Amino acid sequence: MSRSKKQPLRKCVVTQEMLPKKQLIRIVRNKEGEVFVDDSGKKNGRGAYLSKDLDVIEQAEKQNILNRHLNAQVEPEIYEQLKKKVQDEPQ
């Protein structure tokens, strides 16, 4: 009797949808207050998840959603990194 492992679900901070972790990008603020994109999904710190969707990333940027979630100033480079990541990823 093999049971498939349950997929960890996480909530996108923009759409509020619960999605499998693999469909989201994690952004982390560590103790030092640095904010970065966490490709491994395992870094220590306060994490926020975004859907791999350009519209969602742009909305997060416009509304400063990540700033509120992470209690930190999210630099424009982070959003550029996220956009590039989504554009490079095969749909």
UniProtKB/TrEMBL annotation:
<feature type="domain" description="YlxR">
    <location>
        <begin position="10"/>
        <end position="84"/>
    </location>
</feature>
<protein>
    <submittedName>
        <fullName>YlxR family protein</fullName>
    </submittedName>
</protein>
<dbReference type="InterPro" id="IPR037465">
    <property type="entry name" value="YlxR"/>
</dbReference>
<dbReference type="Pfam" id="PF04296">
    <property type="entry name" value="YlxR"/>
</dbReference>
<dbReference type="InterPro" id="IPR035931">
    <property type="entry name" value="YlxR-like_sf"/>
</dbReference>
<dbReference type="InterPro" id="IPR007393">
    <property type="entry name" value="YlxR_dom"/>
</dbReference>
